[in-house]
Amino acid sequence: MEVDYVIVGQGIAGTMLSYYLLQQGNTVIVVDEFNPNSASQVASGVINPVTGRRFVTTWMIETLMPFAQKAYQALEKLLNISIIQQTQLIDFHTTQQMQQAFQQRANDDNTYVSELTNTNHWQQYFQYAHGIGTIQPVFHIQLQTLLSTWRNYLQQQQILIQEVFSLQNLTLSSNSITYRNIKAKAIIFCNGVQAMHLPYFNKLPFAPNKGEALILYLPNLPTQYLYKHGISLIPWQNDLWWAGSSYEWSYSNALPTQNFQQKTMQQLQQWLKMPFQLQQHIASERPATLERRPFVGMHPYFPQIGILNGFGTKGCSLAPYFAYALVQHLTNGHPILAEAAINRFQKILQP
Ligand SMILES: Cc1cc2nc3c(=O)[nH]c(=O)nc-3n(C[C@H](O)[C@H](O)[C@H](O)COP(=O)(O)OP(=O)(O)OC[C@H]3O[C@@H](n4cnc5c(N)ncnc54)[C@H](O)[C@@H]3O)c2cc1C
Questions:
Q1: Are 212 and 282 in contact (CB under 8 A)?
Q2: How far is the CA of 41 from the CAs of 142, 147, 278, in angstroms?
């Protein structure tokens, strides 16, 4: 069997890459084992235009956010699903300092952020002492719906192989690859944190970090908003809410911890005025990078091997744009943005 590209991984990166490659008329095979604890399965699916304790504008967000919006809307149409919602994040300031930082940001530049003056409405749901701000537009992506529907789509086209990819089944030739009995022009790794263990990419400055979240049964909270009070509360499905997250740089495994559960339950009890029940505790590793920029493109010394990775905390906004950029590179030779292009690591990637 012969195809244009083999893609390893069907998280948000592999989903977007296979979508754009097919859209441009290429043939693909996607290899994915399905891991319910992969980053894309565990993520809350938020695209937030500001970041950090000073609410600075996220890198390239003016380009990334409208691009992502169009991409998810096009997928909604193609797959006949509802996966993107434009919304606002109601930010309950945790301390006086945080309130001041938010007000300062709103005074300097009120694109995306503004302070709420009438906050009475929220007293029936939440306990808070330092005012409320709003961040908008924020987008909420139903990642699990997208990933499972796209998986079915690939299955129907008979272009998904559900198995653990193994390098033992990969053979490289000068301008092609063979995976099992499939010959292709190139293989592209969209395998999240697992890419760190590939001999081709293990020298890249990955800096994975672990995130945990609780799934809560919490009926009666208005679902048209997202909420934050240190921890975020994001609508999950039906009356379930996603509550998280943590950013751990040092950990021995990617499993849920008692420590996170206890701390988060306590915080929620102090914040929420309504009863809630813990339904599930999830955790995963974000494929983050030291410089907080993605890894996109073909290996400088193995041009038939590519990567689309390093999306860290921002897979929902980065994956559509950089998947498209990689497809433009592969099919039309367009250069990839220097800050994201893998060839910036030419020296360290030398075999
Ligand atoms: C708790 C948490 C909350 C988050 N919240 C957000 C958020 O709100 N917004 C946002 O934009 N980002 C968020 N993120 C980050 C986001 O999840 C990641 O940036 C994104 O999911 C990375 O996608 P990926 O496709 O690169 O990797 P992954 O999602 O890890 O996908 C990799 C895929 O490769 C497959 N795979 C790996 N190895 C193999 C193999 N050997 N054989 C076969 N298949 C294989 C896996 O099964 C998986 O399907 C969050 C992450 C976490 C952990």
A1: yes
A2: 10, 8, 19
Q: What is the pLDDT of residue 53?
A: 85
Atom of ligand 1 nearest to the CA of 211: 1
One CATH from 3.40.630.30, 3.30.9.10, 3.10.50.40, 3.30.70.1560 for 88-138+207-286: 3.30.9.10
For ligand 1, mutation pick of 44, 245, 295 (most atoms within 8 Å of CB): 44
Decide if domain 2-42+145-205+290-345 falls under CATH 3.50.50.60: yes
Q: Give the HSE-up count for residue 144: Cα atoms under 13 Å, Cβ half-sphere.
A: 11
Amino acid sitting at position 41: Q
Cα(121) to ligand 1 centroid in Å equals 36
Q: Report pLDDT digits (tens) over 28-51.
A: 999 999 999 999 999 999 999 999
Sign of the alpha-carbon torsion through 163, 41, 286, 211: negative
